Amino acid sequence: MISVVIPIYNEEQIIALLHDAVSTAMRETGETWEVVYINDGSRDSSLELLRQLQRTEPEVVVVDLSRNWGHMGALHAGLQTARGDAIVLMDGDLQDPPDVVPKMITAWREGAQVVTAVRKSRKESRKALALLFPLFYRIMGAISDYPIPLNAGIFGLLDRQVLDSLSSLREGNRYLPGLRAWVGYRTAIVYYDRQDRIGGEGKLSFVSRIKYAMDAITSFSYKPLRLSFVLAGIGFLATAVLAAIALGSHSNSMAYGLFAAVAFMGSLPLFCVGILGEYLGRVYDEVRQRPLSIIQQVYRSDANAQELNFSAELPERKVQRQEVYPAA
Ligand code: UDP
Ligand code: MG
Description:
By secondary structure, the chain is an alpha/beta fold. It is built from ten helices and nine strands. α1 runs parallel beside α4, α5 runs parallel beside α8 and α9 packs antiparallel against α10.
């Protein structure tokens, strides 16, 4: 069986279209399949729409999270719920075209255990992002201590064995495209053209994107920490030269020069403490071992599933919660 895992946050406008496209692609593969939609604390009617879909589509599994946990938390909950022998991850806004999925499954049948979908092109309506994505991948490519395919997001396929390896990692700040490369296994790459989202707004805020980029960088490189040494060296040298010149002259402009040097030397440690903080904060995250997300309820339409509930009303929310820790 193939599981398709899709996080959903306020996507009421596109759920019907999305499911159509996904089921068309999956039927084409001839495999048995399920699609796990993770409702990541949507405030619109996404959950109701997904539950409605489930009445006619037995392949649909709905995971309802206790609140909005963000893209990674939602994906993680989906990965823990999926039961397939291979698991396909994709976004719910059709930026990751479902018609690429049969290609991934073909690669998997031919022996690949990881299939990474790499963007040949990216349609991005938001100008700032169109500029920042290449910058991020360039930095990542230059400083990562482990080679990670660039221009690849979460879109791809994982064999069950690979998922088990990923689930056994205890890391909380997960950069999935990086970890997916890091665990190894036979890997295939499929190329695709990334579309613009077909409806609604992008859900990831600028701040959360920066956090994600910093997760990626800090979890795959120590080089920013070493940057402190380099900067400190340059700073000391510059100051020593300026001080020497200042001692040898009486001109007024040297006062400004010294002032600049002092300001520069003052801001250097702050910058370095900032970098340290990025790592230290993540160490603190890991020590606390908080779950990546909390599942409130799983709805399956299988006859043998306990969660079966087809009443017209949404069932009352169970108090019992299932926590999803990085380790399964
Ligand atoms: N998403 C989510 N939780 C969030 C934000 C986003 O589950 O807090 C989902 C969203 O519904 C979509 C996917 O994650 O299916 C990617 O989000 P989005 O398209 O906004 O990201 P972008 O493509 O802009 O990077
Ligand atoms: Mg998107």
